[in-house]
Amino acid sequence: MMKLTVVSTIMRVVLGILFLAHGISKFQMGMDGVAGWFQSVGIPGFLAYVVSPIELVGGILLIIGLFTRYVSILLIIVLLGAVFTVKLSAGLMGNGQMAGYELDLSFMLVALYLAVTNNTGFSLDQMLFRRKTA
């Protein structure tokens, strides 16, 4: 059980770091620039103002392990949106001009695991919301 807790913690923290990095990148690019890029690939620009904070705040929440299940579900939705609106046409491994969706699938699987498991590892979720057994 301890090994599973350690692995779950590593998966959660690494996924959090990756989404935090993506969120920071979008904010550094400037939200108007991100919205413009979204529009250029056929996604409504206002979604940049939704997706970027989800990635940034969601990454932080995953790192500390707070609301892991809900954050993971939100991130799966974001990833599905990216795959079906942008990356699917590039194929699994990409097409030389754009990345494919192989990493998105990997991220979705980690997020799905975190969304359905009761073991979020060493986390605030476990400290604050763990049910006490008699």
UniProtKB/TrEMBL annotation:
The keyword DNA-binding appears for this protein: no
Entry keyword set: Cell membrane, Membrane, Transmembrane, Transmembrane helix
Transmembrane segments: 47-67, 74-93, 105-124
Cellular location(s): Cell membrane
Location, primary (coarse class): membrane
Membrane-related topology note: Multi-pass membrane protein
UniProt KW Zinc-finger keyword: no
InterPro entries per UniProt: DoxX, DoxX-like_oxidoreductase
Family statement drawn from the similarity comment of this UniProt entry: Belongs to the DoxX family.
PANTHER family found in the cross-reference section: INNER MEMBRANE PROTEIN YPHA-RELATED, OXIDOREDUCTASE CATD-RELATED
Protein's recorded name: Membrane protein YphA (DoxX/SURF4 family)
Annotated organism of origin: Paenibacillus hunanensis
